[in-house]
Amino acid sequence: MSITDRLNEVRARIERAAIAASRDPASVKLVAVSKTKDASAIEEAYAAGQRAFGESYAQELAQKAQSLAHLADIEWHFIGHLQSNKAKLIAAHAHVMHTIDSPSLAKELARRVRNAGKPPLTALIEVNVGGEPQKHGATASELQEVIDAVRAEDALALRGLMTIPPEGDLAIAKNVFETLASLRNLHGGATLLPELSMGMTSDLEAAVAAGATMVRVGTAVFGDR
Ligand SMILES: *Cc1c(COP(=O)(O)O)cnc(C)c1O
């Protein structure tokens, strides 16, 4: 199947899930996760109308953003774990940062955005909903301090929350998505935090049902990695 056909299938999945949840399908943005895929795959998706692409490695995002700079309205989303020493690459090339998880990372990113003379970077906070020790993300109890740190920076535009559930169990994923939506409600609701980035190839329907506004889909769009 071509990338264009796969994209159309994913769009249809999002649309069905949104309608089933009495939501407007246009309220769910598809972020096509292109990590490890080459520029030609991204160009094919772009030609099929896809604009938002997700990358997990800062260097890879920077390289692709530079080599695909001719695609003027392409939108780069950073969805991986970011080490502070790579913040400069994200400040220079990303449009949306999904994975701020500490006050120190917020500060460093903001400094890099200012130094690059860029407009405020759209920012989401990654939440480790299950409090799994091996995972990145702010825990529920750390969330308020990370929110405060991001809000304190003019160079960051806080827009919402992001999470990655443990793999392999749809019931657990559903619970994680619903918990992220409750945490959003505890911290100011959709007015202050309009975006929920959650849902991937195997669980996007559950995420849309729980209120996802951005789903990050790799395999179903580009095939196996
Ligand atoms: C790779 C990745 C995805 C995409 O996963 P698929 O199962 O291929 O859809 C989504 N989110 C994050 C954070 C990822 O690292």
Write the layout of secondary structure elements.
Layout: H1 3-20, E1 29-33, H2 39-47, E2 52-55, H3 58-67, E3 75-78, H4 87-93, E4 96-100, H5 103-116, E5 121-126, H6 143-151, E6 156-162, H7 170-186, H8 189-192, E7 195-197, H9 204-209, E8 214-217, H10 219-222
Parallel strand pairs: 1-2, 1-8, 2-3, 3-4, 4-5, 5-6, 6-7
Helix pairs in contact: 3-4, 4-5, 5-6
Bound molecules: pyridoxal-5'-phosphate (PLP).
Pyridoxal-5'-phosphate (PLP) is lined by residues 33, 35, 56, 79, 164, 200-202, 216-220.
Give a brief rundown of this model.
The chain is of the alpha/beta class and 225 residues long.
The named CATH superfamily: Alanine racemase
Q: Which runs of at least 5 residues are low in confidence (pLDDT < 50)?
A: none
Q: List the domain count as a whole number.
A: 1
Q: State the share of residues found in helices, binned by percent.
A: 40-55%
Proper CATH architecture:
Alpha-Beta Barrel
Element string (H = helix, E = strand): HEHEHEHEHEHEHHEHEH
Cα distance spanning the termini: 15 Å
Kindly report the oligomeric state of this protein.
single chain
Which hetero ligands occur in this complex?
pyridoxal-5'-phosphate
What can be said about the biggest beta sheet?
A: 8 strands, parallel
What would you call the structural class? alpha/beta
Shape: globular
Topology-level CATH name: TIM Barrel
CATH class reads: Alpha Beta
